[in-house]
Amino acid sequence: MSDAAREGRMSGGEILRGRVRVRRGDFALDVAIEARPGGIVAVVGPNGAGKSTLLGALAGLLAVDDARIVSGDRVLTDTSSGVHVGAERRSAVLLGQDALVFPHLSVRENVAFAPRAAGVRRAQARRSADEWLAAVGLDGFADRRPGQLSGGQRQRVALARALAARPSVLLLDEPFAQLDVRTAAELRDLVREQVRGSGAAAVLVTHDVVDALTLADHVLVLHDGVVVEEGTPLDVLTDPVHAFTAALAGLNLMAGTVVDDGERVLVGDDGPRLPLAGVVTAAGGEPVPGARAQLTFPPAAVSVVGAADRGWDSVVVDVEPGPAAVRVRTTGDVLVDLAPADAAALDLRLGAPLRLAVAPSAARLRTLPDA
């Protein structure tokens, strides 16, 4: 590990805790969050859910209606007592998807800007910059201008500058969104390594399930300004509670009511009846008849069956490329993945009828809380 990375490790070690409430017109954000040193919390949710608003509040860039944000033993925001530490004094760095580097400065001077702003002498800041550039894989690029770099390289410079500031809190707003697949994968590895090594507490806003699975220790799912579920990436993405999370994880989610007319069946809100024999039950026990419940199951577990077979009637809504060959979206927003031969044998025009069934062993049943 470089001397710069060791210095970063010394500057970290502070738990970030926050409760943030913001109202903007009809939109209200109400979120509690905790990020531990060397850990990454991924915040996911649809557009307009409040993800970037949350980062802005944590960074001290956004006025809040009611909040308490603490990093270690430092109170950064406390509206009840009128405390508000300015963004420049928070030891927090916000890195977005656009690599905001200074075009008139060399790569070295871009990275050295952070320690220079903190009062470090120029020679020492330049040495630190060179160490961070080596850490992000850009040794040999120090004398170039940003205009001579690729988008991925400029993002590495922005990351090196962020880390050179030795922040206690690293805030990442979709930093890989505009990068090609390979560059994004390399920078994920780099962010994970540097966050772990520096001891910074990191919060990552993303739309990408790969970011959550490969980087995060904890996932928050925001929807309409509130946390609708949270937990480890494995728990949240393999057993989602909310429809957005299921879609992010590539799973079907069907909600309905459990009935027992000789066998237990989930009667979906759109009408299908799904037998529950052999279905895996989530923690909390099997739902009783009359209970609200939901099934989650992958598109590959759905099959097209004959008219006389058990299943439910559906209609083709959309057809698109899929992981197997073809992905069919049907009524009730149920996705079906078909192999080439199966797809070719079916009438997949829009509005065509299909009878569907799901493999019970691939489905997971969860009782829903009372409304």
Summary?
This protein is α+β, with helices and mostly antiparallel strands and 371 residues long. It has two domains: 3-238, Rossmann fold (3-Layer(aba) Sandwich); 250-367, no CATH class. The protein is 27% helix and 33% strand.
SSE blueprint:
Blueprint: H1 3-11, E1 16-24, E2 27-35, E3 40-44, H2 51-59, E4 66-71, E5 74-78, E6 83-84, E7 92-96, H3 107-117, H4 122-135, H5 151-164, E8 169-173, H6 181-198, E9 201-205, H7 209-215, E10 218-223, E11 226-231, H8 233-238, H9 243-248, E12 252-260, E13 264-268, E14 273-275, E15 280-281, E16 292-297, E17 302-304, E18 312-321, E19 326-330, E20 334-338, H10 340-344, E21 353-358, E22 364-367
Parallel strand pairs: 3-9, 3-10, 7-8, 8-9, 15-22
Antiparallel strand pairs: 1-2, 1-4, 4-5, 5-6, 10-11, 12-13, 12-16, 13-14, 16-22, 17-21, 18-19, 18-21, 19-20
Helix pairs in contact: 1-6, 3-4, 3-5, 4-5, 5-6
Give a verbal description of the structure.
The protein is α+β, with helices and mostly antiparallel strands and 371 residues long. Mean pLDDT is 90; it is low at 1-11. The chain has helices at 3-11, 51-59, 107-117, 122-135, 151-164, 181-198, 209-215, 233-238, 243-248, 340-344, and strands spanning 16-24, 27-35, 40-44, 66-71, 74-78, 83-84, 92-96, 169-173, 201-205, 218-223, 226-231, 252-260, 264-268, 273-275, 280-281, 292-297, 302-304, 312-321, 326-330, 334-338, 353-358, 364-367. Helix 3 runs parallel beside helix 5. Helices cover 27% and strands 33% of the residues. It folds into two domains: 3-238, 3-Layer(aba) Sandwich (Rossmann fold), CATH 3.40.50.300; 250-367, no CATH class.
